[in-house]
Amino acid sequence: GQNIDQPTEMTATEGAIVQINCTYQTSGFNGLFWYQQHAGEAPTFLSYNVLDGLEEKGRFSSFLSRSKGYSYLLLKELQMKDSASYLCAVRGSGGSYIPTFGRGTSLIVHP
Amino acid sequence: GAGVSQSPSNKVTEKGKDVELRCDPISGHTALYWYRQSLGQGLEFLIYFQGNSAPDKSGLPSDRFSAERTGGSVSTLTIQRTQQEDSAVYLCASSPSADEQFFGPGTRLTVL
Fold first, then answer.
1. pLDDT beyond 60 at A69
2. How far is B69 from chain A (nearest CA, A)?
3. CA B45 to CA A8: how far, in whole Å?
4. For A102, nearest residue in chain B (alpha carbons)
5. What integer pLDDT is reported at residue A47 of this predicted model?
6. Sign of the dihedral through C-alpha B11, A104, B5, A31
7. Average pLDDT estimate for A1-15
8. Which residue of A32, A33, B50, B97 has the fewest C-beta atoms within 10 A of its own C-beta?
9. CA-CA distances (angstroms) from residue B64 to A107, B18, B92, B108?
10. Do B103 and A43 touch (CB under 8 A)?
11. Cβ of B91 and A44 within 8 Å?
């Protein structure tokens, strides 16, 4: 089976840096996704990690350690518009391309 | 180009009625997924279509739920004899490959 854990809620200050962690236990591993979802809207893709290490994309970076079953999403220079839910999703092995989503982390950015 | 579209955007129905939810994926995307999301919950996988292969129905919660995808494009999710616990946002996503998914805006279903 698949088990994905993320903190339920985090708060941070505008301009700061925040790290959202995700740990997983899955049947095999075939990639980890991060999505952003604003309230009342559809999730939008942020990153996809297959290999260990850090991938940077503008203000957002995603890190993966397969041996530890661990990932984090790093958001720099926080803006008010970054207030959203951040979803971690893991795809297991066995030929299935269906990712399993965590419950998401609600990030609140305040002035 | 156009993204994934879903209709209706909102649906209110009475317990026991059947509902049909529609998804138009991005043209050329071979993979199509249905999820549902209840308030404060993560995305719950329902069903997955890939090309002409048999769909993966392992996430459907009961036999009241069914889905089809015609001509490898448009998909319809049908819920028969709706129950109050079926109330949720139903999200459709399509993908050109095994990588990122493109989500539609969702259909908010309310069963009274």
1. yes
2. 17
3. 20
4. B42
5. 95
6. negative
7. 92
8. B97
9. 36, 9, 18, 18
10. yes
11. no
In this prediction, residues A37-63 reach a mean pLDDT of 94
Chain A, nearest residue to B4 by Cα: A42
Contacts of B28 (CB under 8 A, 6+ apart): B96
Chain A hits for B99, CB-CB cut-off 8 Å, are: 31, 48
Q: Give the pairing of strands B19-24 and B5-7.
A: antiparallel
Q: Is the pLDDT of residue B1 over 70?
A: no
Query: Could you report the per-residue pLDDT of B55-102, keeping only the tens digit for each?
Result: 999 999 999 999 999 887 999 999 999 999 999 999 999 998 767 899
Which residue has tokens 């069963």? Answer: B111
- Min Cα distance A104 → chain B (Å) is 6
Place of tokens 């392992």: B58
Which of B50, B99, B106 is the closest to A42 by Cβ? Answer: B106
